[in-house]
Amino acid sequence: MRRRGYGLRRITTAADNRHLLQCARRRKILTARQVASQLSADTGRPISHQNVSLRLHEGELFARRPVVCLRLSPVDVRARFYWAHEHRSWTP
Protein backbone atom coordinates (compact mmCIF):
# COMPACT_ATOMS: atom_id res chain seq x y z
CA MET A 1 0.00 0.00 0.00
CA ARG A 2 1.34 3.38 -0.96
CA ARG A 3 1.67 5.95 1.79
CA ARG A 4 0.29 9.43 1.35
CA GLY A 5 2.88 12.11 0.74
CA TYR A 6 5.46 9.87 -0.90
CA GLY A 7 6.51 10.14 -4.50
CA LEU A 8 7.30 13.04 -6.78
CA ARG A 9 5.90 16.45 -6.03
CA ARG A 10 3.58 18.02 -8.55
CA ILE A 11 5.03 20.66 -10.82
CA THR A 12 1.73 22.44 -11.32
CA THR A 13 -0.22 24.22 -8.63
CA ALA A 14 -4.00 24.23 -8.28
CA ALA A 15 -4.08 27.64 -9.99
CA ASP A 16 -1.95 26.29 -12.86
CA ASN A 17 -4.35 23.38 -13.23
CA ARG A 18 -7.35 25.72 -13.41
CA HIS A 19 -5.57 27.90 -15.98
CA LEU A 20 -4.64 24.83 -18.00
CA LEU A 21 -8.22 23.52 -18.04
CA GLN A 22 -9.54 26.96 -18.94
CA CYS A 23 -7.14 27.25 -21.88
CA ALA A 24 -8.04 23.77 -23.09
CA ARG A 25 -11.77 24.49 -22.91
CA ARG A 26 -11.45 27.81 -24.72
CA ARG A 27 -9.34 26.51 -27.59
CA LYS A 28 -10.42 22.93 -28.15
CA ILE A 29 -8.19 22.37 -31.16
CA LEU A 30 -4.92 22.67 -29.17
CA THR A 31 -2.88 19.54 -28.50
CA ALA A 32 -1.33 18.72 -25.14
CA ARG A 33 2.08 19.81 -26.47
CA GLN A 34 0.72 23.19 -27.53
CA VAL A 35 -1.03 23.71 -24.19
CA ALA A 36 2.21 22.75 -22.40
CA SER A 37 4.25 25.27 -24.36
CA GLN A 38 1.62 27.97 -23.73
CA LEU A 39 1.55 27.22 -19.99
CA SER A 40 5.36 27.22 -19.85
CA ALA A 41 5.41 30.63 -21.50
CA ASP A 42 2.76 31.97 -19.10
CA THR A 43 4.33 30.65 -15.87
CA GLY A 44 8.00 30.70 -16.81
CA ARG A 45 8.45 27.11 -15.57
CA PRO A 46 8.97 24.15 -17.90
CA ILE A 47 6.14 21.60 -17.98
CA SER A 48 5.95 18.43 -20.03
CA HIS A 49 3.09 17.45 -22.29
CA GLN A 50 2.64 14.25 -20.23
CA ASN A 51 1.89 16.39 -17.16
CA VAL A 52 -0.56 18.46 -19.17
CA SER A 53 -2.25 15.31 -20.46
CA LEU A 54 -2.59 13.94 -16.91
CA ARG A 55 -4.05 17.20 -15.61
CA LEU A 56 -6.52 17.32 -18.49
CA HIS A 57 -7.61 13.75 -17.72
CA GLU A 58 -8.07 14.68 -14.07
CA GLY A 59 -10.25 17.57 -15.25
CA GLU A 60 -12.24 15.06 -17.35
CA LEU A 61 -11.05 16.43 -20.68
CA PHE A 62 -10.10 13.72 -23.13
CA ALA A 63 -8.89 13.74 -26.71
CA ARG A 64 -11.62 13.04 -29.21
CA ARG A 65 -11.87 13.23 -32.95
CA PRO A 66 -14.47 15.66 -34.24
CA VAL A 67 -17.35 14.15 -36.16
CA VAL A 68 -17.03 14.87 -39.84
CA CYS A 69 -20.34 15.51 -41.54
CA LEU A 70 -21.44 17.45 -44.56
CA ARG A 71 -23.48 20.57 -44.11
CA LEU A 72 -26.90 20.41 -45.69
CA SER A 73 -28.12 23.23 -47.84
CA PRO A 74 -31.60 24.63 -47.17
CA VAL A 75 -32.81 22.81 -50.30
CA ASP A 76 -31.54 19.48 -48.95
CA VAL A 77 -33.10 20.11 -45.54
CA ARG A 78 -36.46 20.83 -47.16
CA ALA A 79 -36.20 17.72 -49.36
CA ARG A 80 -35.45 15.53 -46.34
CA PHE A 81 -38.37 17.02 -44.45
CA TYR A 82 -40.80 16.35 -47.29
CA TRP A 83 -39.50 12.80 -47.75
CA ALA A 84 -39.93 12.08 -44.02
CA HIS A 85 -43.39 13.66 -44.06
CA GLU A 86 -44.49 11.46 -47.00
CA HIS A 87 -43.09 8.28 -45.47
CA ARG A 88 -44.12 8.74 -41.85
CA SER A 89 -46.81 6.06 -42.08
CA TRP A 90 -44.38 3.37 -43.24
CA THR A 91 -43.91 0.41 -40.93
CA PRO A 92 -40.65 -1.48 -40.54
TrEMBL record:
<dbReference type="Pfam" id="PF01498">
    <property type="entry name" value="HTH_Tnp_Tc3_2"/>
</dbReference>
<protein>
    <recommendedName>
        <fullName>Transposase Tc1-like domain-containing protein</fullName>
    </recommendedName>
</protein>
<dbReference type="GO" id="GO:0006313">
    <property type="term" value="P:DNA transposition"/>
</dbReference>
<dbReference type="GO" id="GO:0015074">
    <property type="term" value="P:DNA integration"/>
</dbReference>
<feature type="domain" description="Transposase Tc1-like">
    <location>
        <begin position="18"/>
        <end position="88"/>
    </location>
</feature>
<dbReference type="GO" id="GO:0003677">
    <property type="term" value="F:DNA binding"/>
</dbReference>
<dbReference type="InterPro" id="IPR002492">
    <property type="entry name" value="Transposase_Tc1-like"/>
</dbReference>
